[in-house]
Amino acid sequence: MLNKKRNSLSSDGWLLEPFIDHSLSEKFDCGDEDLNEFFRKDLEPYEKELLTKTYMLFPEGAPGGQLVALISFCNDSIRLRDIEESLDLPDAKKHPYLPAVKIARIGVRTDLCGKGIGTHLLNMTKILFLKENRTGCRILTVDAYNKERVLNFYKKNHFDFVTPKDNAKNTRTMFYDLMRTIITPPASTT
Prior knowledge:
Strand content: 25-35%
Number of helices: 4
Number of strands: 8
Distance between the termini: 46 Å
Shape: globular
Radius of gyration: 17 Å
Structural class: alpha+beta
Order of helices and strands: EEHEEHEHEHEE
Oligomer: single chain
């Protein structure tokens, strides 16, 4: 049996853990109808078909888990040639595709938007995929809505565009290199 704690992360009074009680999403409102529809109607069938895995964010110790945000992930890969200039990979480690995890959907409750919760959720996500790494995941990807507010949110959180070719489409593919999150210890002065 998998340890639930291994799939959970606690940070600064928040808990991120796998979403189990789908009845909690029935009234979830993040202010975007497409996302609301996914979380209310599509989330459970997507999980049953092993297409996504959703996590919930709530204050630690909150009774009943006071759902604050939802984030769904799925596996992905990204062509190295599309982002090679942004990475520092030794030649021996260069493969045509890099393993990635896609942020399939993310939503913060409307009454809590603009309070830094989305940024904290992304920071927790970065740590979650580095903690006890199971399969190797170098990159986080997202197909962000091509709206200035959304793109600025991801840029503020250090995501980069994969290509300028999608700048007129409904979504823009962006990525974050998880190696940026790993803290390198200072060089020894001895």
